[in-house]
Amino acid sequence: MNQKPAPSRRHFNAIGGVLALMAWAPSTWADTFPSKPIRIVVPFSAGGPTDFMARTIGKIMSTNLGQPVIVDNKPGGGGVIGMSEVKNQPADGYTMVFPSILAVTNPALMPKYPFDTLRDFAPLTVVGFVPHAVVVRSDFPAADLQALVAMSKAKPDSLSYGSSGNGTSAHLGAALFAQRAGIRATHVPYKGAGPAVQDLLGGQIQFMFLDMSSALPFIKAGKLRALAVATAKRFDGLPDVPTVAEQGYPGFDVHGWYGLMLKAGTPAAVTQRLYAEVKRALDTQEVRDIFKAQGISPGGMPPDQFTVLVRNDLAMWKRTVEELHISLQ
């Protein structure tokens, strides 16, 4: 009977070398990363809040990492084009995507949404939370939500609300509020917040759920008035404006967030390095001051917490869209 030769010392040395390489590789990735420019894909046009946040933190990250951090705008398809760009890149951390909350609302609204957000992408961190305010024109007769609801109930279908588009958090938030308040109001979608605000100022629509970064300049100028803040807690920049929950709708919490995601499968060491650098940028007083002036609350939660937030929001918006019978068709 033929017997297999016993493993040689050289054989054991080879195995030991492989194991040593495996143990050494993660720390080496962290130590040598990045060795070339990093790209942040923004799935929206230049000039919006996502683009602004990406460029603000990207500048600081470039300095700290010693490599350029390039912001690459890939608008279209409600964020789908930009996310596709990252999904088709290697899972090496050199390409990140900067989606908005559309990453968790689109799956509920699009029957043929081409991604599984948590299977295809790895949440890194929230860069900024942007609360929504319920706003009306400064001379609108309702002074609070109760008065707005009373006006609508006295004359059903007399009020209309605008949004920056079908399926946006502004649209879904207002629709959810109308359901909770038991009122009928007409939704008027626009191609962006700008045209909607102009019609709000002109009296063509009566109220909006408007992101704070867009609302603050008009509120400060006295052109719009905030009746409520849609998040669970009051907004620091408007401390005297009560929340929707405080005005009779407990548990109401519609929040907008903008975060960074990597392609699923990115090495853990690279993920942690990127998270540390984004958090480092967000913790600077410079970024905090810039974000505050724009109505943005800095994020910074670690990847595991952001993953939980994404998972919870996916479930919440799926349930909301089904209950309200909302579709993009």
CATH architecture of the largest domain: 3-Layer(aba) Sandwich
Low-confidence stretches: 20-27
Helix tally equals 12
Which class do the helix and strand fractions yield? alpha/beta
- Biggest sheet details: 7 strands, mixed
Could you name the CATH class of the largest domain? Answer: Alpha Beta
Structure description:
The chain is an alpha/beta fold. It folds into two domains: 35-129 and 255-324, D-Maltodextrin-Binding Protein, domain 2 (3-Layer(aba) Sandwich); 131-247, D-Maltodextrin-Binding Protein, domain 2 (3-Layer(aba) Sandwich), CATH 3.40.190.10. It contains twelve helices and ten strands. Strands 4, 5, 6, 7, 8, 9 and 10 form a seven-stranded mixed sheet that branches. It has a three-stranded parallel sheet with strand order 2-1-3, with helices on both faces. Helix 7 links the parallel strand 5 and strand 6 (186-189). Helix 2 (49-65) crosses helix 10. The chain is globular, with a radius of gyration of 24 Å. Mean pLDDT is 89; it is low at 20-27.
